[in-house]
Protein backbone atom coordinates (compact mmCIF):
# COMPACT_ATOMS: atom_id res chain seq x y z
CA UNK A 1 0.00 0.00 0.00
CA UNK A 2 1.41 3.41 -1.01
CA UNK A 3 1.71 6.39 1.33
CA UNK A 4 -1.14 8.05 -0.58
CA UNK A 5 -3.40 5.07 0.07
CA UNK A 6 -2.44 4.94 3.74
CA UNK A 7 -3.29 8.62 4.22
CA UNK A 8 -6.61 8.20 2.41
CA UNK A 9 -7.43 5.27 4.69
CA UNK A 10 -6.42 7.30 7.74
CA UNK A 11 -8.67 10.19 6.66
CA UNK A 12 -11.87 8.15 6.41
CA UNK A 13 -13.01 8.60 10.06
CA UNK A 14 -12.48 12.36 9.59
CA UNK A 15 -14.74 12.63 6.52
CA UNK A 16 -17.98 14.58 6.32
CA UNK A 17 -20.62 13.08 8.59
CA UNK A 18 -18.11 10.82 10.36
CA UNK A 19 -17.55 10.87 14.13
CA UNK A 20 -14.17 12.64 13.88
CA UNK A 21 -15.29 15.26 11.33
CA UNK A 22 -14.54 18.10 13.76
CA UNK A 23 -10.86 17.16 13.78
CA UNK A 24 -10.57 17.01 9.99
CA UNK A 25 -8.40 20.17 9.70
CA UNK A 26 -5.66 18.43 11.70
CA UNK A 27 -5.43 15.37 9.46
CA UNK A 28 -5.90 17.47 6.31
CA UNK A 29 -2.91 19.57 7.34
CA UNK A 30 -0.72 16.46 7.23
CA UNK A 31 -2.14 15.58 3.82
CA UNK A 32 -1.52 19.01 2.30
CA UNK A 33 1.97 19.15 3.83
CA UNK A 34 2.94 15.97 1.96
CA UNK A 35 0.85 16.37 -1.19
CA UNK A 36 -0.62 19.13 -3.33
CA UNK A 37 -4.30 19.72 -2.35
CA UNK A 38 -6.63 17.84 -4.71
CA UNK A 39 -9.33 20.51 -4.80
CA UNK A 40 -9.76 23.44 -7.20
CA UNK A 41 -11.89 26.55 -7.25
CA UNK A 42 -15.45 25.99 -8.48
CA UNK A 43 -16.62 29.54 -9.17
CA UNK A 44 -15.27 33.02 -9.79
CA UNK A 45 -12.14 33.99 -11.65
CA UNK A 46 -9.17 31.72 -11.05
CA UNK A 47 -5.82 30.87 -12.62
CA UNK A 48 -4.62 27.31 -13.03
CA UNK A 49 -1.06 27.42 -11.73
CA UNK A 50 1.48 25.16 -10.07
CA UNK A 51 2.26 27.72 -7.36
CA UNK A 52 0.20 27.60 -4.17
CA UNK A 53 0.65 28.97 -0.65
CA UNK A 54 2.51 25.86 0.48
CA UNK A 55 5.09 26.11 -2.31
CA UNK A 56 5.52 29.82 -1.64
CA UNK A 57 6.12 29.25 2.06
CA UNK A 58 8.54 26.37 1.42
CA UNK A 59 10.50 28.61 -0.96
CA UNK A 60 10.91 31.21 1.78
CA UNK A 61 11.98 28.52 4.25
CA UNK A 62 14.63 27.32 1.78
CA UNK A 63 15.80 30.93 1.35
CA UNK A 64 16.16 31.19 5.14
CA UNK A 65 18.31 28.06 5.48
CA UNK A 66 21.67 29.70 4.55
CA UNK A 67 21.16 32.37 7.26
CA UNK A 68 20.01 29.69 9.72
CA UNK A 69 23.02 27.42 9.13
CA UNK A 70 25.48 30.30 9.35
CA UNK A 71 23.67 31.61 12.41
CA UNK A 72 24.19 28.28 14.16
CA UNK A 73 27.88 28.35 13.28
CA UNK A 74 28.28 31.98 14.37
CA UNK A 75 26.58 31.24 17.68
CA UNK A 76 29.33 28.77 18.48
CA UNK A 77 32.07 30.94 16.97
CA UNK A 78 31.12 34.01 19.02
CA UNK A 79 31.09 31.89 22.17
CA UNK A 80 34.34 29.98 21.65
CA UNK A 81 36.34 32.82 20.05
CA UNK A 82 36.32 34.70 23.35
CA UNK A 83 37.51 31.73 25.39
CA UNK A 84 41.23 31.06 25.05
CA UNK A 85 42.21 27.60 23.91
CA UNK A 86 38.78 26.76 22.48
CA UNK A 87 38.27 24.68 19.34
CA UNK A 88 37.19 27.06 16.55
CA UNK A 89 36.62 24.42 13.87
CA UNK A 90 33.42 24.70 11.84
CA UNK A 91 32.04 21.44 13.24
CA UNK A 92 32.68 22.42 16.86
CA UNK A 93 31.11 25.85 16.45
CA UNK A 94 28.17 24.53 14.41
CA UNK A 95 27.33 21.75 16.86
CA UNK A 96 27.36 24.20 19.77
CA UNK A 97 25.06 26.53 17.80
CA UNK A 98 22.81 23.64 16.83
CA UNK A 99 22.47 22.67 20.49
CA UNK A 100 21.50 26.27 21.33
CA UNK A 101 19.28 27.18 18.37
CA UNK A 102 17.40 23.95 17.59
CA UNK A 103 15.35 24.00 20.85
CA UNK A 104 14.20 27.55 19.99
CA UNK A 105 13.05 26.39 16.56
CA UNK A 106 11.25 23.39 18.05
CA UNK A 107 9.47 25.55 20.65
CA UNK A 108 8.51 28.13 18.05
CA UNK A 109 7.01 25.57 15.67
CA UNK A 110 5.47 23.46 18.43
CA UNK A 111 3.66 26.32 20.17
CA UNK A 112 2.73 28.19 17.00
CA UNK A 113 1.38 25.19 15.11
CA UNK A 114 -0.55 24.02 18.16
CA UNK A 115 -2.36 27.37 18.24
CA UNK A 116 -2.92 27.29 14.47
CA UNK A 117 -4.41 23.79 14.71
CA UNK A 118 -6.62 24.81 17.64
CA UNK A 119 -8.03 27.82 15.78
CA UNK A 120 -8.53 25.77 12.60
CA UNK A 121 -10.52 23.13 14.49
CA UNK A 122 -12.51 25.74 16.43
CA UNK A 123 -13.38 27.75 13.32
CA UNK A 124 -13.84 24.74 11.08
CA UNK A 125 -11.37 25.74 8.37
CA UNK A 126 -8.20 24.19 7.03
CA UNK A 127 -4.82 24.84 8.64
CA UNK A 128 -2.95 27.50 6.66
CA UNK A 129 0.72 27.15 5.78
CA UNK A 130 1.63 30.71 6.76
CA UNK A 131 3.28 29.69 10.02
CA UNK A 132 5.87 27.59 8.19
CA UNK A 133 7.84 30.81 7.63
CA UNK A 134 6.92 32.65 10.84
CA UNK A 135 7.95 29.65 12.94
CA UNK A 136 11.50 29.87 11.57
CA UNK A 137 11.72 33.66 11.48
CA UNK A 138 10.98 34.11 15.18
CA UNK A 139 14.02 32.17 16.50
CA UNK A 140 16.30 33.83 13.93
CA UNK A 141 15.53 37.34 15.19
CA UNK A 142 15.97 36.50 18.89
CA UNK A 143 19.09 36.58 21.11
CA UNK A 144 20.55 33.10 21.48
CA UNK A 145 20.18 32.77 25.25
CA UNK A 146 16.61 34.03 25.61
CA UNK A 147 14.72 31.52 27.81
CA UNK A 148 12.54 29.10 25.86
CA UNK A 149 9.45 30.02 27.85
CA UNK A 150 9.86 33.63 26.68
CA UNK A 151 10.04 32.41 23.09
CA UNK A 152 6.84 30.43 23.69
CA UNK A 153 4.96 33.39 25.19
CA UNK A 154 6.13 35.66 22.36
CA UNK A 155 4.85 33.12 19.83
CA UNK A 156 1.50 32.93 21.60
CA UNK A 157 1.16 36.72 21.51
CA UNK A 158 2.20 36.94 17.85
CA UNK A 159 -0.13 34.20 16.62
CA UNK A 160 -3.20 35.08 18.69
CA UNK A 161 -3.01 38.88 18.91
CA UNK A 162 -0.97 39.64 15.82
CA UNK A 163 -2.59 37.14 13.45
CA UNK A 164 -5.65 35.12 14.52
CA UNK A 165 -7.37 38.17 16.05
CA UNK A 166 -7.46 39.63 12.54
CA UNK A 167 -8.79 36.45 10.93
CA UNK A 168 -5.69 34.32 10.38
CA UNK A 169 -3.24 33.96 7.50
CA UNK A 170 -3.60 36.71 4.91
CA UNK A 171 -5.60 39.01 7.21
CA UNK A 172 -2.95 40.31 9.64
CA UNK A 173 -1.83 43.93 9.34
CA UNK A 174 1.51 43.42 11.12
CA UNK A 175 4.27 40.94 10.39
CA UNK A 176 3.77 38.14 12.98
CA UNK A 177 7.49 37.47 13.52
CA UNK A 178 8.21 41.13 14.20
CA UNK A 179 5.17 41.24 16.46
CA UNK A 180 6.76 38.44 18.51
CA UNK A 181 10.06 40.30 18.71
CA UNK A 182 8.36 43.58 19.65
CA UNK A 183 6.45 41.80 22.43
CA UNK A 184 9.63 40.18 23.76
CA UNK A 185 11.54 43.46 23.55
CA UNK A 186 9.01 45.44 25.59
CA UNK A 187 7.99 42.62 27.95
CA UNK A 188 11.49 41.30 28.71
CA UNK A 189 13.90 44.16 27.85
CA UNK A 190 16.83 42.82 29.91
CA UNK A 191 16.82 39.62 27.81
CA UNK A 192 16.52 41.49 24.49
CA UNK A 193 19.06 44.30 24.84
CA UNK A 194 22.31 45.22 26.54
CA UNK A 195 25.90 44.02 26.34
CA UNK A 196 25.46 40.40 27.45
CA UNK A 197 22.54 38.94 25.49
CA UNK A 198 24.01 38.59 21.97
CA UNK A 199 26.75 36.05 22.71
CA UNK A 200 25.94 32.70 24.28
CA UNK A 201 26.82 32.34 27.97
CA UNK A 202 28.12 35.93 28.13
CA UNK A 203 26.26 36.46 31.39
CA UNK A 204 27.93 33.41 32.98
CA UNK A 205 31.51 34.04 31.89
CA UNK A 206 33.05 37.39 32.83
CA UNK A 207 35.58 37.32 29.99
CA UNK A 208 32.89 37.31 27.30
CA UNK A 209 31.56 40.59 25.91
CA UNK A 210 28.44 40.32 23.79
CA UNK A 211 27.81 43.90 22.71
CA UNK A 212 26.68 44.55 19.14
CA UNK A 213 28.31 47.08 16.82
CA UNK A 214 25.32 49.42 16.95
CA UNK A 215 25.24 49.10 20.73
CA UNK A 216 28.89 50.13 20.95
CA UNK A 217 28.34 53.11 18.66
CA UNK A 218 25.33 54.24 20.67
CA UNK A 219 27.47 54.07 23.81
CA UNK A 220 30.34 56.02 22.24
CA UNK A 221 32.66 53.00 22.14
CA UNK A 222 35.16 52.10 19.43
CA UNK A 223 34.25 49.44 16.85
CA UNK A 224 37.05 46.98 16.06
CA UNK A 225 35.31 45.03 13.29
CA UNK A 226 36.09 45.56 9.60
CA UNK A 227 33.46 46.01 6.91
CA UNK A 228 34.22 42.48 5.69
CA UNK A 229 33.61 41.10 9.20
CA UNK A 230 30.27 42.88 9.24
CA UNK A 231 29.36 41.63 5.76
CA UNK A 232 30.37 38.02 6.40
CA UNK A 233 28.59 37.98 9.77
CA UNK A 234 31.38 37.14 12.21
CA UNK A 235 29.92 39.60 14.73
CA UNK A 236 27.56 39.43 17.73
CA UNK A 237 23.85 39.78 17.05
CA UNK A 238 20.57 37.93 16.67
CA UNK A 239 20.92 34.36 15.41
CA UNK A 240 20.04 34.83 11.75
CA UNK A 241 20.68 38.53 11.23
CA UNK A 242 24.48 38.88 11.28
CA UNK A 243 25.57 37.57 7.86
CA UNK A 244 24.58 39.87 5.00
CA UNK A 245 26.38 37.48 2.62
CA UNK A 246 24.05 34.56 3.32
CA UNK A 247 21.03 36.82 3.57
CA UNK A 248 21.82 37.97 0.02
CA UNK A 249 21.83 34.33 -1.08
CA UNK A 250 18.32 34.04 0.35
CA UNK A 251 17.34 37.31 -1.36
CA UNK A 252 18.45 35.93 -4.73
CA UNK A 253 16.32 32.82 -4.19
CA UNK A 254 13.27 34.95 -3.38
CA UNK A 255 13.82 37.28 -6.35
CA UNK A 256 14.53 34.54 -8.91
CA UNK A 257 11.44 32.57 -7.84
CA UNK A 258 9.31 35.72 -7.80
CA UNK A 259 8.33 35.17 -4.17
CA UNK A 260 9.99 38.30 -2.73
CA UNK A 261 9.53 41.82 -4.11
CA UNK A 262 12.79 43.19 -5.49
CA UNK A 263 11.17 46.63 -5.60
CA UNK A 264 10.77 46.70 -1.81
CA UNK A 265 14.34 45.48 -1.33
CA UNK A 266 15.72 48.06 -3.78
CA UNK A 267 13.57 50.80 -2.26
CA UNK A 268 14.85 49.95 1.21
CA UNK A 269 18.45 50.22 0.00
CA UNK A 270 17.74 53.58 -1.66
CA UNK A 271 16.12 54.96 1.49
CA UNK A 272 18.89 53.73 3.80
CA UNK A 273 21.72 54.89 1.52
CA UNK A 274 20.12 58.31 1.11
CA UNK A 275 19.72 58.83 4.86
CA UNK A 276 23.17 57.40 5.50
CA UNK A 277 24.80 59.89 3.13
CA UNK A 278 22.91 62.78 4.74
CA UNK A 279 24.01 61.76 8.24
CA UNK A 280 27.60 61.14 7.11
CA UNK A 281 27.69 64.73 5.84
CA UNK A 282 26.60 65.96 9.30
CA UNK A 283 28.66 63.53 11.44
CA UNK A 284 27.49 64.98 14.75
CA UNK A 285 28.05 61.70 16.64
CA UNK A 286 29.48 58.20 16.16
CA UNK A 287 26.26 56.77 14.69
CA UNK A 288 25.98 59.65 12.21
CA UNK A 289 29.66 59.31 11.25
CA UNK A 290 29.35 55.54 10.80
CA UNK A 291 29.83 54.96 7.02
CA UNK A 292 26.55 54.53 5.15
CA UNK A 293 27.65 51.23 3.60
CA UNK A 294 28.33 49.79 7.06
CA UNK A 295 24.77 50.62 8.12
CA UNK A 296 23.60 48.21 5.40
CA UNK A 297 25.53 45.24 6.78
CA UNK A 298 25.06 45.54 10.56
CA UNK A 299 22.08 44.88 12.77
CA UNK A 300 18.93 43.41 11.33
CA UNK A 301 18.64 45.75 8.34
CA UNK A 302 19.42 43.22 5.59
CA UNK A 303 17.47 40.38 7.21
CA UNK A 304 14.44 42.54 7.92
CA UNK A 305 14.42 44.08 4.46
CA UNK A 306 14.68 40.73 2.65
CA UNK A 307 12.47 38.46 4.75
CA UNK A 308 10.01 40.68 6.64
CA UNK A 309 9.56 43.96 4.79
CA UNK A 310 8.66 41.89 1.72
CA UNK A 311 5.90 39.97 3.53
CA UNK A 312 3.13 40.06 0.86
CA UNK A 313 0.38 40.30 3.48
CA UNK A 314 1.58 43.26 5.53
CA UNK A 315 3.54 45.13 2.83
CA UNK A 316 2.26 47.46 0.12
CA UNK A 317 0.62 45.71 -2.84
CA UNK A 318 0.80 48.21 -5.72
CA UNK A 319 3.92 48.56 -7.86
CA UNK A 320 4.52 52.22 -7.03
CA UNK A 321 3.46 51.59 -3.45
CA UNK A 322 6.19 48.96 -3.05
CA UNK A 323 8.84 51.51 -4.01
CA UNK A 324 7.44 54.10 -1.58
CA UNK A 325 7.05 51.50 1.17
CA UNK A 326 10.60 50.18 0.74
CA UNK A 327 12.20 53.64 0.63
CA UNK A 328 10.39 54.69 3.82
CA UNK A 329 11.45 51.47 5.61
CA UNK A 330 15.10 52.25 4.81
CA UNK A 331 14.78 55.89 5.83
CA UNK A 332 13.00 55.22 9.12
CA UNK A 333 15.42 52.41 10.00
CA UNK A 334 18.37 54.82 10.03
CA UNK A 335 16.37 57.63 11.64
CA UNK A 336 15.43 55.37 14.56
CA UNK A 337 18.98 54.00 14.87
CA UNK A 338 20.55 57.42 15.07
CA UNK A 339 18.02 59.43 17.07
CA UNK A 340 17.02 56.75 19.60
CA UNK A 341 20.15 55.72 21.58
CA UNK A 342 18.02 53.42 23.74
CA UNK A 343 17.19 51.32 20.69
CA UNK A 344 20.03 51.59 18.14
CA UNK A 345 18.65 48.89 15.84
CA UNK A 346 15.72 50.48 14.02
CA UNK A 347 14.59 47.97 11.44
CA UNK A 348 11.91 46.28 13.58
CA UNK A 349 10.19 49.55 14.42
CA UNK A 350 10.57 50.83 10.86
CA UNK A 351 8.90 47.78 9.31
CA UNK A 352 6.09 47.62 11.87
CA UNK A 353 5.42 51.34 11.35
CA UNK A 354 5.24 50.92 7.59
CA UNK A 355 3.06 47.80 7.98
CA UNK A 356 0.48 50.13 9.54
CA UNK A 357 0.75 52.67 6.72
CA UNK A 358 0.99 50.18 3.81
CA UNK A 359 -2.80 50.23 3.12
CA UNK A 360 -2.75 54.05 3.14
CA UNK A 361 0.12 54.09 0.66
CA UNK A 362 -1.75 51.73 -1.67
CA UNK A 363 -4.94 53.78 -1.29
CA UNK A 364 -3.31 57.01 -2.44
CA UNK A 365 -1.38 55.27 -5.22
CA UNK A 366 -4.64 53.84 -6.59
CA UNK A 367 -6.47 57.16 -6.13
CA UNK A 368 -3.67 58.94 -7.97
CA UNK A 369 -3.83 56.42 -10.82
CA UNK A 370 -7.62 56.83 -11.09
CA UNK A 371 -7.31 60.63 -11.24
CA UNK A 372 -4.66 60.42 -13.97
CA UNK A 373 -6.85 58.11 -16.03
CA UNK A 374 -9.84 60.43 -15.62
CA UNK A 375 -7.73 63.36 -16.81
CA UNK A 376 -6.52 61.40 -19.84
CA UNK A 377 -10.07 60.37 -20.65
CA UNK A 378 -11.31 63.97 -20.31
CA UNK A 379 -8.51 65.23 -22.56
CA UNK A 380 -9.26 62.54 -25.13
CA UNK A 381 -12.96 63.41 -25.17
CA UNK A 382 -12.14 67.08 -25.72
CA UNK A 383 -9.99 66.31 -28.75
CA UNK A 384 -12.71 64.16 -30.27
TrEMBL record:
Composed of six subunits; NqrA, NqrB, NqrC, NqrD, NqrE and NqrF. It comes from Pustulibacterium marinum. It is an enzyme of class 7 (translocase). The keyword Endoplasmic reticulum does not apply. The modification FMN phosphoryl threonine is found at residue 212. This is Na(+)-translocating NADH-quinone reductase subunit B. HAMAP family: NqrB. GO terms for cellular component: plasma membrane. Pfam families: NQR2_RnfD_RnfE. Belongs to the NqrB/RnfD family. It is a multi-pass membrane protein. Its EC number is 7.2.1.1. PANTHER family: ELECTRON TRANSPORT COMPLEX PROTEIN RNFD, NA(+)-TRANSLOCATING NADH-QUINONE REDUCTASE SUBUNIT B.
Amino acid sequence: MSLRDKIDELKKPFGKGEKLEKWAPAINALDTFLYVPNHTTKKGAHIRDGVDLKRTMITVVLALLPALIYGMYNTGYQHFSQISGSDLSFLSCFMYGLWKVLPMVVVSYGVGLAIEFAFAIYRGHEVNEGYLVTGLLIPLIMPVDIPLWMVAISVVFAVIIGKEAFGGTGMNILNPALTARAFAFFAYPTYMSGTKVWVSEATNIDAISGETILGKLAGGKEVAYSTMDMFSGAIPGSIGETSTLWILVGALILIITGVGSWRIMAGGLIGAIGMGLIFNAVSANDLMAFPWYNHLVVGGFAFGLVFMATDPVSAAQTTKGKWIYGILVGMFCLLIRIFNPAYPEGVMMAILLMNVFAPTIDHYVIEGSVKKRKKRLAAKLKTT
